[in-house]
Specification:
This protein is mostly helical and about 550 residues long. The protein contains 24 helices and no strands. The relative contact order is 0.07.
């Protein structure tokens, strides 16, 4: 009988861990379903400043009771372009601080109140709401309420399991440096296995409360749990966008910095917290001491990262660069070139060819989403995000071109250089308009229904789309086409455009197509025509500029030896 008691206690301990994780999953999942789109709106509205982002991370983590869930959600929002990198950074920092709320709930309710008095009613009420509410918000809220009760029922079983097993439950951990390092390692491994730092924290708190673990060893395990929780964020950022990977790296860095600071100050922090607790209450409660320690070192991590956030953002933005971000960096423009007008003009001309190439490539990618071939091709994965990144790349490059022109313009300029600078800015504006219009054309093509059963529509659109695609390929400055070839491609498109517009209007008048759909497609054809027109103007003006070598030679001769 005595030999069976440890076995029963071990089973109770495992059951408590399972119930705690089940309750955490139900609580987190139910609250996320109940919040729905409101979570996205809150993240967008409440992250305007670092302080707002920090408070949002704390509040939402306290609500969903999972810093891991909040970190993964923030990475997902960044990955989808719904949240910028810097606001998401502070949400993640806040989520680490908000994770301490779980410890306070465990300390205040899990050990101070008889669990059966409220956990079982929560489970009953929550399941009633869940079963009667189904897939509605009420059902999701019921799942969260039931999960809250299951979570604390798991804590009660954890406490019973540790009480039955006694002090030999966990390996003996000394208070010296090797013992603390072993505690950190145990915390990391437990969190990696359980995939929840809150579960590790609950286990440690119940072990400390039952006398199975000294508070110093528990503090070391809690430090390790904070480091172990970064694994889920790292896995979520694999093969994600550069900003998502940067956010995962920032999460790791924050937790490591906080862990190092907490480990270095472990003994004085615990001593100070114990002294304050004795002064306030007349006794030293080990569980409360550990919870305060967990909150303190996460707050310390926030304080340490606050002045470092600016350099950290700049450091991370220089890492994990995508092809689009590399393209947004000028290849020919720099401050040294801007000081010599002739060289500045040559660099600007070459950079403008890159701008034109990127604009034409965006146009071609947008056209490949439209019915340029039969059958209408399916949209490639993440097509919308790709178009958005291409447009952002061009916008960033245009800003740097404008800044370079402003800097070069402060120098005394020869007459022909002064004449070409405004012309190059005009060409840049044409390419900018083309890119913006084609970005919208691509989005409209993605949202439009596939017209597989409407031959009049396909017959009208296919030649115009194919002619536009051929124009963008021909007018690409890096393609090296002669001006006559670009003019010919423009003429072919104009003819195809007029034929398509006439065919659509005729089909609408004859009832072969819905009139509203006809107006929509005619409007999109008009956008396409405007983009081709802007591209033709840019190509014509770029071709009319003096050749680079002649311009450079003439300016150098004017300056003399």
């Amino acid at each position: 009988m005595t030999s069976a008691t440890p076995l029963v206690s071990a089973g109770t301990l495992l059951g408590g861990i399972g119930l705690f994780l089940l309750g955490m999953t139900m609580l987190t999942g139910g609250l996320k379903l109940a919040a729905g789109k409101a979570l996205e709106r809150m993240l967008a509205a409440w992250t305007r400043t670092p302080l707002h982002g920090l408070a949002t991370g704390v509040a939402l983590t306290a609500l969903v009771q999972s810093s891991t869930a909040m970190t993964v959600a923030a990475i997902g929002f960044v990955n989808a372009g719904l949240l910028g990198f810097t606001p998401a950074l502070w949400v993640v920092f806040g989520s680490n601080l908000g994770s301490s709320v779980t410890g306070w709930l465990v300390a205040w309710l899990g050990f101070a109140v008889k669990v059966d008095a409220f956990a079982l009613p929560f489970i009953g009420l929550g399941m009633a709401l869940h079963l009667t509410g189904g897939a509605t918000r009420r059902g999701a809220l019921g799942q969260a309420v039931a999960g809250f009760g299951v979570l604390f029922l798991g804590i009660e079983l954890l406490r019973e399991g540790f009480t039955g097993l006694g002090p030999q439950t966990l390996p003996p951990l000394a208070a010296d440096l090797p013992g603390r390092l072993l505690g950190v390692l145990i915390g990391v491994l437990m969190t990696v296995v359980l995939q929840a730092s809150s579960a590790t924290l609950a286990i440690v708190l119940t072990a400390v409360a039952g006398g199975s673990l000294p508070v110093e060893a528990g503090a070391a395990i809690v430090i390790g749990a904070n480091v172990g929780t970064t694994l889920t964020g790292i896995l979520a950022a694999l093969r994600a966008t550069p900003n998502a990977r940067r956010l995962a790296a920032a999460h790791v860095l924050f937790n490591v910095v906080a862990a190092v600071a907490a480990f270095a100050l472990l003994a004085p922090l615990l001593a100070a917290i114990h002294a304050v607790g004795v002064w306030l209450t007349g006794r030293g409660d080990a569980v409360t001491q550990l919870v305060i320690f967990h909150t303190t070192f996460n707050a310390l991590g926030v304080l340490l990262m606050w002045p470092l956030s600016g350099p950290l953002v700049r450091f991370l933005q220089a890492r994990f660069r995508s092809a689009e971000e590399d393209e947004a960096r000028p290849r020919y423009l720099d401050r040294n070139v801007a000081a010599v007008p002739a060289l500045a003009l040559q660099a600007l001309r070459r950079e403008m060819e890159r701008v034109g190439h990127l604009a034409m490539r965006l146009g071609m990618d947008a056209m490949r989403l439209a019915p340029c071939a039969l059958p209408w091709p399916p949209a490639p994965p993440q097509a919308q995000e790709r178009l958005a990144r291409q447009l952002q790349t061009l916008e960033q490059l245009q800003q740097q071109v404008g800044a370079f022109v402003g800097e070069a313009g402060r120098q005394p300029l020869p007459s022909d250089v002064a004449a070409q600078m405004p012309e190059l800015l005009r060409i840049a504006a044409y390419y900018d308009t083309l890119a913006r219009v084609m970005h919208q054309v691509g989005l409209q093509a993605l949202r439009a229904p596939r017209p597989t059963g409407e031959p009049p529509l396909l017959d009208a659109l296919v030649p115009a789309c194919a002619a536009a695609l051929a124009f963008f390929e021909t007018a690409d400055p890096q393609a090296g086409a002669a001006p006559a070839a670009i003019d010919a491609a423009r003429a072919v498109f104009d003819t195809a455009y007029e034929n398509a517009k006439l065919a659509l209007l005729r089909a609408g008048a004859q009832g072969a197509l819905d009139v509203a759909a006809v107006h929509g497609w005619v409007g999109q054809l008009g956008d396409l025509r405007r983009a081709v027109e802007q591209g033709h103007k840019a190509a014509a003006r770029l071709a009319a500029l003096p050749p680079l070598v002649e311009s450079l030679s003439r300016n150098l001769n004017e300056k003399g030896p």
